[in-house]
Design brief:
The structure holds two protein chains of two kinds. Chain A is of the alpha/beta class. Chain A contains 19 helices and eleven strands. By secondary structure, chain B is an alpha/beta fold. Chain B starts with a strand and ends with a helix. Classes of the chains: A alpha/beta, B alpha/beta.
């Protein structure tokens, strides 16, 4: 598929080099800080589970107790495992309960021998958690071998969002039977701003269902059943983005989710989460995804819902390059990079379809080994469902023509209702028609040398390089503060979750990071 | 003429189209059930033009037919625009002349609603449909609090900014969240501020009934397709209008 745009490899190399240069200081920041959510993820992998009677998870209570006694900067592993040895409690959840009741005091182990013992115990406990993640990954590999991957690319990605996990399950199974290869369970609005992960099976959510470990488990089990029935491994997606990225990543690994929404900047721009909190959480969560064999989906489509899809096309490219850099740095392989982009150009604009084609092809050729996540129109879906269905058809056509890896199925009732059963059926029929009728059209599709498509792609790449140069000069954090992406201005000293960030002390210890980086 | 009926291709033919799903597999009986529903909805005769089974237990139908209902345009109740539509220049001029200071506007998406498209379309410089947002009006001082703002924070900011008007956008309507949030918001303002010092309360969103302003305790509701200029014109009318 490579080479249709005749991109200059030197420009592409420059773009990557600049993205790395812009991203490096942020990685350094992430390596030298921790957050409450990173520490809670460590405790989850070490085996803390459940919640207090008010629904606040024991990991939150335990981290809060440690922070109150010794602060966050040492990490919680040493104080917690030191306290376990000192108090003789051998169940870490029981320790959390005692700590919440004020019955345990935490200290950083002073002596060398004590510190070493605490380290060893922390390492042992968290490696048990990571072993479960490894087993889940092996399980996925086995099931894919047995049932197979979807026959076609792009994989067909469908959303369910009822708010009730027990309603979601039959809907997800029905969607898989109707042709979906990937099921995404949309989260309840607002979950991204909760500084804890809710517990248990949930039946109430707004415009989505809470991401909880139990909901993950229930849905994965149901889709395993459907995979067996269909003879095709049906993948499950959820959302890591938000204040609890590291923990949700850990839970996803423990329950064999297959894809996770995980953007490097989405939380900052669209949820006003503090930039440093986001970058620290993002790095850790991606390291966990890398280990779990999870494909990440990035959120570049979102920029185009606020900024103009033509004027801001290059910001998508820049963000993809940054997401790629951060992902590689965290250990993710190309096959795990569902870099996002979207069909969001105003359809009234002359040549809008050609522009879409140019942008989609540019993403394809810049990232030839990444699956790419192709997102349907939302901004210009008006409630005119007939026109919406037509737009979705053209969206599908661009998707197949440019070899996108994951196609999120557009609904003609976007902006009207959460999809009805019939909306999904009409939408899948649309996808099938296009894939069946034009699935191999890419073989014949060769843009004219020096023509509109090539020119446009070169222009966008050029603008992306210019912007990356400015970001390198200005620093990425400043660029985010200035409103470079999606028009939102997000300074590094503001935003939600900043009080849950701490700089590493000299004796900071995190057994999970250590294992993931070894 | 005030009595009208739907138009297919001939005046007075009353033709409409309808699509729906019934929770039954597709067979003759299902088609009969679909026609029975159409009949009860006033479609007579109804033509079943498409039926397709989805999964094991559902069938999707498209029905065309003649509807026997009439509508009287005289009896239609809507909120007509009761203020003049001004240009940005005129809006600025009126504020300058009448208020002699900038008019303060605070906007937010409240509750768990994270969809800022509506409030951004009205407030952001970028605007919508070729019209620039309220931030571009020289005489308007705009504070856009963004998404998922709590009602107490909104009241506090409105107080701090001495807001003349508060704009709230609500897109998510599941379980009537937009109505509950709006009621909570208007109640909080009533509680926090005495009548004379309360800002003008305005909500907007694609699923509001514009007639519900009184019931929800707000001054005005804007529905789908509202442009920044309409909102600006209304603000000027309501806050500097000749009645004051």
């Amino acid at each position: 598929m490579a080479g249709k745009l005749n991109l200059d490899p030197r420009v592409v190399r420059t773009a990557r080099r600049l993205a790395a240069k812009a991203g490096r200081p942020v990685v350094d920041l992430a390596r030298s800080h921790t957050t409450v959510s990173v520490e809670r993820a460590v405790l989850r992998l070490a085996g803390v589970h459940g919640a207090d009677p008010d629904g606040i998870p024991w990991v939150n209570r335990l981290v809060d107790a440690v922070v109150a006694d010794v602060g966050l900067g040492h990490g919680v592993a040493l104080p917690v495992f030191h306290a376990m040895r000192a108090s003789g409690v051998d169940d870490i959840t029981v320790l959390a309960q005692k700590a919440a009741a004020g019955a345990v005091r935490f200290a950083v182990p002073a002596g060398k021998a004590e510190a070493l013992a605490a380290r060893r115990a922390a390492k042992r406990a968290t490696s048990d958690g990571l072993k479960v993640v490894d087993r889940r990954r092996a399980e996925r590999d086995r099931m894919i071998k047995r049932y197979g991957d979807p026959e076609q690319r792009p994989w067909i990605y469908l959303i369910v969002a009822t708010g009730d996990i027990y309603e979601d399950i039959p809907q997800a199974q029905a969607a898989a039977r109707a042709g979906a290869d990937v099921i995404a369970v949309i989260r309840s609005t607002g979950q991204s701003l909760l500084d804890y992960v809710p517990e248990g099976a949930t039946r109430e959510g707004f415009a989505g269902t809470y991401a909880t470990q139990e909901n993950f488990r229930l849905m994965r089990a149901a889709l395993d059943e459907t995979s067996r029935e269909l003879g095709r491994y049906v993948r499950l997606t959820n959302y890591a983005s938000g204040l609890c990225m590291p923990e949700i990543a850990a839970l996803a690994g423990l329950e064999r989710l297959d894809m996770m929404l995980n953007d490097s900047m989405y939380g900052i721009l669209f949820r006003d989460i503090n930039p440093i909190r986001t970058f620290v959480d993002q790095r850790f969560s991606r390291q966990v995804h890398a280990r779990a064999g999870i494909i990440i989906n990035t959120g570049e489509d979102n920029y185009l819902t606020t900024a103009d899809a033509v004027e801001a096309a290059h910001t998508v490219t820049v963000s993809q390059l940054l997401n790629e850099y951060f992902a590689h740095e965290a250990g993710l392989a190309d096959w795990q990079l569902g870099l996002g982009h979207a069909f969001e150009i105003n359809p009234d604009l002359p040549e809008s379809f050609r522009l879409e084609l140019a942008h989609a092809l540019l993403a394809r050729e810049l990232f030839p080994d990444a699956p790419l996540k192709w997102m349907p129109p939302t901004k210009h879906m008006t409630g005119d469902v007939f026109r919406g269905n037509l737009l979705d058809g053209f969206f599908n056509l661009v998707g197949t023509l440019t070899g996108q890896g994951i196609l999120l199925v557009g609904m003609m009732t976007e902006a009207v209702v959460t999809p009805w059963l019939s909306d999904r059926d009409v939408a899948l029929q649309n996808v099938r028609y296009v894939l069946n009728g034009a699935g191999n059209l890419h073989e014949d599709f060769v843009p004219a040398p020096g023509g509109f498509l090539q020119q446009r792609a070169h222009q966008v790449l050029g603008e992306a390089v210019d912007l990356l140069e400015r970001i390198v000069d200005d620093t990425l954090l400043e660029a985010i503060a200035d409103g470079t992406f999606g028009i939102m201005k997000r300074p590094a000293d503001r935003g939600k979750g900043l009080d849950g960030v701490a700089k590493h002390e000299d004796d900071y210890y995190n057994p999970v990071t250590e294992a993931l980086e070894s | 003429m005030t009595i009208i009926r739907p138009y297919g291709d001939t005046t007075g033919d009353g033709m409409v189209q309808l699509s729906f799903t019934l929770p039954v597999p597709h067979d003759k009986r299902a088609e009969g059930a679909a026609l029975q529903l159409a009949g009860k909805m006033g479609m007579e005769p109804a033509m079943l033009v498409h039926a397709k089974q989805m999964g094991d237990a559902y069938t999707f139908f498209v029905v065309y037919g003649k509807v026997n209902h009439l509508v009287d345009t005289e009896k239609v109740q809507v909120v007509e625009r009761d203020y003049p539509l001004l240009s940005a220049k005129e809006v600025n001029a009126v504020i300058k002349r009448r208020l002699r200071r900038r008019l303060n506007v605070v906007g937010a998406c409240i509750g768990t609603d994270a969809h800022t498209v509506g409030i951004d379309a009205i407030l952001n410089l970028k605007g919508i449909a070729g019209e620039k947002g309220l931030e571009s009006y020289r005489e308007l001082a705009v504070t856009n609090m963004g998404a998922q703002v709590s009602v107490p924070d909104l009241v506090e900011t409105a107080r701090e900014q001495k807001a003349d008007a508060v704009l709230v956008s609500q897109v998510v309507t599941q379980r009537d969240a937009h109505l509950q949030n709006t009621r909570a918001m208007s109640a909080a303002f009533r509680e926090a501020l005495p009548a004379g010092r309360r800002p003008l309360l305005i909500v907007g969103g694609p699923r509001f009934d514009e007639l519900m302003a009184g019931e929800l305790g707000v001054d005005r509701i804007f529905g789908r397709g509202t442009t920044p200029r309409e909102v600006a014109s209304y603000l000027v009318h309501a806050l500097t209008g000749s009645s004051k």
